[in-house]
């Protein structure tokens, strides 16, 4: 799980162009939206694309995304359970 | 008719960004392709803007902010943008992803920033400007069309202030395509590059750079039409050909593209000094924006750098008062602009 969280942080940094953020600076349990990384609704769409492209997970319901994108740990848990690649 | 003034003009280009250092110390290029020199965006953009916006959008917003700061006009009545290629970098990313990953796995950011009118839209959103907003994409006369529209809107009394911009970015892959059709690159002179120019136009003259006296655009003009247009343009400005300080053309050293300029000068302005700017600002679809930018600063500063002169007619001894700017594309599209120095300059 640790390795997956590090990989996920790196993928998010690249997908969202977080040039000045390193994986170490992202707290596994901090909220991704609002506080924490301060992501917004467009970032949520980018994360949905990332989930499908990198892990083969299709999120069809925006509400589902809201729960999954709570934090890096919650995302990594979900990916570990549902990934197809 | 009330006069229209260029109150401020700023650029990001092959030269030092957001600066007129090129007037005394121009950076010279001897390469077929070079990207523009960016300023330190961190001084102008929030971290969120910095990571979200593509390069052309960053340049557009930074140059716009710069002219806003210089003039105190933060919400112009109109925003008019000319761009030949629009947000080319994100368009390429979007299309590459489309080919590689299919239609369902596309980045929304790249998609949103891949249309031509994203630039004018962004400028309106960031500056909270709710007025007239338009984008012209007409190859080499894109910027001229935007400026003509602004000038017309002033003349009919629709607006009192306007932000007019010329923006283009040139990716390595698109450079190879333009090289293939002989537009730039190859063995001929000129550096293929990018454009970012913002002008703040206003009906107020205070601290302005120059007056935008008049302009005309013509499509496939006959000799007679060109002659009549030149006469009416000069009449409107109360000028004769001989009284012009200089004619600034888009001459770049590329023979086929330059031929109509040489013919025009020989026929209509054989005794007037000629200026060029593309040797310093490069070639791009909206390079003519640099002509207006450079001419405005020459009139404001009261001198023309020696390196801008070409042709047999020697420079005038007095400071420049009036400049005619000529941009043409393939001998089909012609744009003629007259700028005049403000009193006391």
Q: What order do the helices and strands come in, and which of them pair?
A:
The complex is a heterodimer of chains A (85) and B (345).
Chain A: H1 2-15, H2 41-55, H3 62-68, H4 72-82
Helix pairs in contact in A: 1-4
Chain B: E1 4-12, H1 47-52, H2 55-71, E2 78-82, H3 88-101, H4 108-112, H5 118-127, E3 132-136, H6 142-155, E4 161-168, H7 172-180, E5 195-202, E6 210-219, H8 223-236, E7 246-249, H9 255-268, E8 274-276, H10 278-281, H11 288-301, E9 309-310, E10 322-329, E11 333-340
Parallel strand pairs in B: 2-3, 2-4, 7-8, 7-10
Antiparallel strand pairs in B: 1-5, 1-6, 4-5, 6-11, 8-9, 10-11
Helix pairs in contact in B: 2-5
Report a brief summary of the structure.
The complex is a heterodimer of chains A (85) and B (345). Chain A is mostly helical and 85 residues long.
Protein model, in words:
- The complex is a heterodimer of chains A (85) and B (345).
- Chain A has 85 residues and is mainly α.
- Helices cover 55% and strands 0% of the residues of chain A.
- Chain A has a single domain (2-82), classed as Non-ribosomal Peptide Synthetase Peptidyl Carrier Protein, Chain A (Orthogonal Bundle).
- Chain A has helices at residues 2-15, 41-55, 62-68, 72-82.
- The radius of gyration of chain A is 12 Å and the shape is globular.
- Chain B has eleven helices and eleven strands.
- Chain B has an eleven-stranded mixed sheet, with helices on both faces.
- In chain B, α2 packs across α5.
- Chain B is globular and about 60 Å long.
- In chain B, a hairpin with a 3-residue loop joins β10 (322-329) and β11 (333-340).
- Chain B is of the alpha/beta class and 345 residues long.
- Classes of the chains: A mainly alpha (85), B alpha/beta (345).
- Chains A and B meet through α2 of A and α1 and α4 of B.
């Amino acid at each position: 799980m640790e390795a997956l969280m590090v990989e996920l942080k790196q993928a998010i940094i690249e997908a969202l162009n977080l040039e000045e953020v390193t994986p170490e600076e992202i707290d596994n349990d901090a909220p991704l939206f609002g506080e924490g990384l301060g992501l917004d609704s467009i970032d949520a769409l980018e994360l949905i694309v990332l989930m499908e492209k990198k892990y083969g997970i299709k999120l069809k319901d925006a509400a589902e995304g809201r729960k999954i994108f709570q934090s890096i740990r919650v995302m990594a848990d979900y990916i570990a359970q549902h990934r197809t690649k | 008719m009330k006069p229209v003034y260029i109150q401020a003009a700023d650029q990001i280009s092959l030269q030092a960004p957001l600066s007129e250092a090129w007037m005394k110390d121009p950076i010279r290029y001897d390469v077929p392709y070079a990207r523009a020199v960016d300023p330190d965006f961190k001084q102008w953009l929030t971290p969120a803007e910095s990571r979200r916006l593509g390069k052309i959008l960053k340049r557009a917003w930074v140059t716009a902010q710069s002219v806003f700061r210089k003039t105190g006009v933060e919400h112009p009545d109109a925003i008019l943008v000319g761009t030949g290629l629009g947000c080319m970098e994100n368009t390429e990313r979007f299309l590459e992803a489309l080919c590689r990953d299919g239609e369902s796995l596309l980045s929304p950011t790249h998609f949103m920033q891949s249309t031509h009118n994203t630039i004018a839209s962004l400028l309106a959103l960031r500056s909270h400007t709710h007025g007239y907003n338009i984008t012209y994409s007409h190859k080499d006369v894109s910027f001229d069309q935007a400026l003509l529209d602004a000038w017309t809107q002033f003349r009919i009394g629709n607006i009192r202030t306007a932000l007019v911009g010329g923006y283009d970015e040139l990716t390595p892959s698109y450079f190879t395509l333009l090289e293939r059709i002989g537009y730039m690159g190859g063995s001929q002179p000129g550096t293929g590059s990018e454009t970012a120019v913002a002008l703040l136009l206003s009906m107020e003259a205070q601290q302005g750079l120059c007056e935008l006296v008049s302009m005309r655009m013509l499509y496939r003009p006959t000799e007679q039409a060109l002659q009549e247009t030149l006469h009416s343009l000069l009449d409107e400005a109360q000028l004769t050909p001989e009284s012009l300080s200089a004619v600034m053309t888009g001459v770049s050293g590329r023979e086929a593209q330059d031929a109509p300029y040489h013919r025009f000068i020989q026929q209509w302005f054989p005794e007037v000094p000629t200026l060029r700017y593309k040797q310093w600002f490069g070639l791009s679809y909206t390079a003519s924006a640099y002509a207006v930018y450079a001419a405005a600063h020459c009139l404001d500063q009261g001198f023309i750098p020696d390196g801008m002169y070409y042709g047999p007619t020697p420079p005038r001894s007095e400071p420049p008062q009036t400049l005619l700017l000529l941009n043409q594309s393939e001998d089909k599209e012609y744009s003629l602009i007259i700028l005049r120095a403000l009193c006391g300059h």
